[in-house]
Amino acid sequence: MGRSRPHVVIVDDERDIADIYAKNLEGSYETSVAYGGEEALDVIDDGVDAVLLDRRMPDMSGDEVLAELREQGMDCAVIMVTAVDPDLNILDMGFDDYLSKPVDEETLESTLERHVDPVADSERVEEYFSLLSKLEVLEAELSGAELQESDEFKRTARRAREMTEQLREEIDDFESLVETYRNIDRSPGDDGR
């Protein structure tokens, strides 16, 4: 490929946050910044390995950017980094991970590592961790009753259980892979967002 480091695009209308993320990651990644959704679509191309994407932006929402990227066939990892509280609608979204702001440098690095430096059978592993991320964020934000009323949540949970069993049989170090995933702190800070 000729590139020595993976390329990460940070998309956030809050310039200070986008610039801080870019500065924190520039030691390990080639970084680009877009301060809005429309600008992101101009910057993101086939050479991008991952996108850190805010959901709430004035010109074009992160949800719209994500949908457009997937419609264009972009298969880069998309990690939602946002203060927007998740709802059951995230089950239909094509992102790879969901982090609630504020996000520290270590969490960004470890999340990117997992998605940009893939292991064997990466597509299925990415799908698995994407499912886990969606389930975990919904379990943290919604009541058990709300989750039990959602057929889609139950279907997604069932799919995650099936994949757990399949991947456990296929990947030698599967348990340590899951342990690494679970050690990534996705919880929001104590800023009372």
TrEMBL record:
Organism: Halorientalis brevis
Record-given protein name: Response regulator
SUPFAM superfamilies named among the record's database cross-references: CheY-like
Keywords: Coiled coil, Phosphoprotein
In-chain residues carrying the UniProt-annotated modification 4-aspartylphosphate: D54
Coiled coil: 150-184
Start and end residues of each Response regulatory domain: 7-116
